[in-house]
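Need tokens for this chain, all 293 residues.
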Amino acid sequence: MEETMDQIMFKAQTLIEALPYIRDFNNKRVIVKYGGSAMLDENLQSNVIKDVALLKLVGMKPMIVHGGGKEISKWLKRVGKETSFVDGLRVTDEETMEIAEMVLNKVNKDLVRMLEQVGVRAIGISGKDGGMLCCEKKIVSAGDIGYVGDVVKVDTDIIDKLLEDDYIPIIAPIGLGIEDYKSYNINADDAASSIAKAMKAEKLAFLTDIDGVCTDPEDKTTLLSTLTVKEAQKLITDGYICGGMLPKLNNCIDAVLAGVQRVHIIDGRKQHCLLLEFFTDQGVGTAILNDEN
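Here are the structure tokens for all 293 residues:
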């Protein structure tokens, strides 16, 4: 079916709208935290991979930090091991850590394969490689949660080299114990935020299962397209932010204060959400930026 002239002109206008963003982000480092439902649906997965590939092909320097929690839970169930969580964190004994590492490495290489399939070069690594993510055991008031790590040191040397050599780094959130050299499971949001801060990235995008930051989570019309750090802090203080959004928004605030220019919270279930958020005036999620911007 042939396109009408109006449809062709609309595509042209979309490209023109994207032009200043492509210019401004040329050669800039962008970190995409990939997780949630967008990892489970093959169509959405394909769209995310194509978005990241396009970011690379128009001159940006993207990298992916991925999760895999639902896949880990699936494999733990297969081997008859129960999963328990404390404050949203998976209790990770030695056997769970071994399974989590195997699953995350499989997810990692699947993402590499998909990027290679669409014509861009990618290399999969974990936070253990090159001592990229060094951890201490996370301490929570509820008790021992096992091999769950807090990032205390980020060495970006291996990422820098991959970017210089024209690869897209795909990073699994597994850290190395700074004292015991054991594997630690890291919350993927925390890993992405830590890497973005260490690299002073231009953008950090969290792909989630929500539209963005809403003053009323039940009302999508209350979505906030942009938020300054002060506005975000006030929303937290006033009690508008709760549940899983609270640590995510705190990660966003910390990243911006540490030098990341913009942090985005985007619904990964929307087709081509990265392109719509990065390259259109309206956007589709929430962008958190410094008060001075």
